[in-house]
Amino acid sequence: MIKTAFLTGTRAEYGIFYPLLNKLSGLKSFHLQIIATGMHLSPEFGLTYKEIENDGFVINKKVEMLLSSDSDTGTIKSLAIGLMGFAEALDELKPDLLILLGDRYETFACATAAYIKKIPIIHIHGGETTEGAFDEALRHSITKMSYLHFTSTEKYKKRVIQLGEHPDRVFNVGALGLDNVCNTHFLSKTELEKALNFTFGEKNIIVTFHPSTLETNTASKQFTELLKAIDSYKDLKIIFTKPNADASGRIISKLIDQYVKHNQNKCISVSSLGRVRFLSALHYIDAVVGNSSSGIIEAPSFKIPTINIGDRQKGRVQSKSVINVSPAFSEISKALDLSFSNKFRKICRNALNPYGNGETTDKIIKILKNEFKKTINLKKSFYDTYDK
Length: 388
What we know:
Elements: E1 2-8, H1 11-24, E2 30-37, H2 49-54, E3 61-63, H3 72-93, E4 97-101, H4 105-116, E5 121-124, H5 135-145, E6 148-151, H6 154-162, E7 170-172, H7 177-183, H8 189-196, E8 203-208, H9 219-231, E9 236-241, H10 249-262, E10 267-270, H11 274-284, E11 287-290, H12 293-297, E12 306-309, E13 322-325, H13 329-340, H14 342-350, H15 360-371
Parallel strand pairs: 1-2, 1-4, 2-3, 4-5, 5-6, 6-7, 8-9, 8-11, 9-10, 11-12, 12-13
């Protein structure tokens, strides 16, 4: 039995992990271990660790690391606290492998601890680029500490190899989150409206906007421009989801609260929709607006437009259903007009999602079974592509 540890620190990350966790929990050859950290343990962000437990999973360790701060310094201190906590958690759990997803600083701290403790790291969603966030550098750093790599597109697979990882340990499996899209039983519109205390209108959007962490003091201005744009549509109904625990995230949360307070007839805000409610909402809305990766990866499978604002997701492989704009009122307004047009909605209906078809879980499990029959040698040689 392979002791397989997962780290999850955010609602979105857990939602992506869910199909893999669910499948592995039913296999005798894997012993599941879950480490919850970051926003999962914070009342401010909805104590979303409860969602993990409500789904029937056992959380083996909780690592408190999130300071009540909204600054770069606070993020650095949280990272340092997390590093100590992960060292203790991994020492206690002694996993045979650690599965990490993406690029957040919580993930980077856990990867650092696992690498030094000589625990093989399995990295999902490596090789991607997000030029507006420091996640970019953290993601590539996690790649270099990882033993196996599961990328979401062929382009990202090539980039991981370009970073010196041997092709035999890099696998393009598609985006894990699309397994949820293909296998989740969506709530009916009536059920979702009741669950959210929200009534859909003629035009509906989800807004998720995070700070661009490689920029300084831009969150308030950028989000205000977005609010001005959506406020000009009097018949628009809006579901706001709160930002992550990043520097300047609380500024955006405050602006959301103020806007909702004065526009209760047209919008709501939630700390976390959760996996089922979020995917159900995508099934009924008309567009995704903001700068979340869900607009790039999951939304195209619902054949709806995404308005991607600013540089946070810059560099990611995109479907033709994604409209990229700068964080300015005029551009966002034009993009909203385009997203509601019949011509662009036809483009969305015919657009392919470059992140796969929802069969990622089975691919990952098959590869894990094969790879862990072999001898694991963590002394990796740098694979130079320039002389191949």
